[in-house]
Design brief:
Blueprint: H1 8-15, E1 23-26, H2 27-34, H3 40-44, H4 55-62, E2 65-71, E3 76-81, E4 86-91, E5 94-96, H5 99-109, H6 113-120, H7 124-132, H8 139-152, E6 156-158
Parallel strand pairs: 4-6
Antiparallel strand pairs: 1-3, 2-3, 4-5
Helix pairs in contact: 1-4, 5-7, 6-7
Length: about 170
């Protein structure tokens, strides 16, 4: 993170925080740290808060943090230490994704259900069904979810302790 970057003050602030748990900052607090207003898109778009290679994304990621959840209604964002990962359990020698993990992946990427559905070539309703637990993603789709997770830098770890071979 270059010191002349608009988001360098946020990088410095986050870099100094202990990474012992979640860190909640209001949009107003972030603006005070930056010494300027957040762009309009930051106040309304999940994509702005995506853990990606954007200038702002590098600010928190290089400081060792990831955006866990932006809350536009409460006007705050929750950061979590990058070292905290999600566990995905293998099912039948393939990664099985729970409803919570699929939703966390989608939110991590800053995508709507439709955007994730488009990337996986499924219907939006299918993504919705996965997220509410009506259906499980099949083995081939689990592999695609794994590939998407790696592409967007979603921190997950396969849990070898829970390997169901049935």
């Amino acid at each position: 993170m270059l010191p002349q970057s608009k988001y360098y003050p946020l990088y410095e602030y986050l870099d100094q925080q202990p990474d012992e748990g979640l860190l909640e900052l209001s949009f107003e607090e972030i603006e005070a740290i930056l010494g300027s207003e957040l762009p309009r898109s930051a106040l309304t778009s999940r994509a702005w808060w995506a853990n990606s290679e954007t200038t702002q994304g590098r600010a928190w990621q290089e400081a060792g943090w990831l955006v866990d959840n932006p809350d536009f209604e409460q006007q705050l964002v929750v950061f979590r230490p990058a070292r905290i990962t999600y566990r995905v359990s293998p099912i039948r020698k393939s990664v099985g994704w729970t409803s919570e993990q699929i939703k966390a992946l989608r939110e991590h990427a800053g995508w709507s259900q439709q955007e994730l559905a488009d990337r996986l070539a499924v219907r939006q309703q299918t993504v919705s069904d996965w997220e509410v637990g009506n259906h499980l993603a099949r083995r081939s789709m689990s592999k695609l979810l794994q590939m998407v997770a790696e592409e967007v830098g979603f921190p997950y770890q396969i849990d070898p302790q829970n390997n169901d071979e049935t």
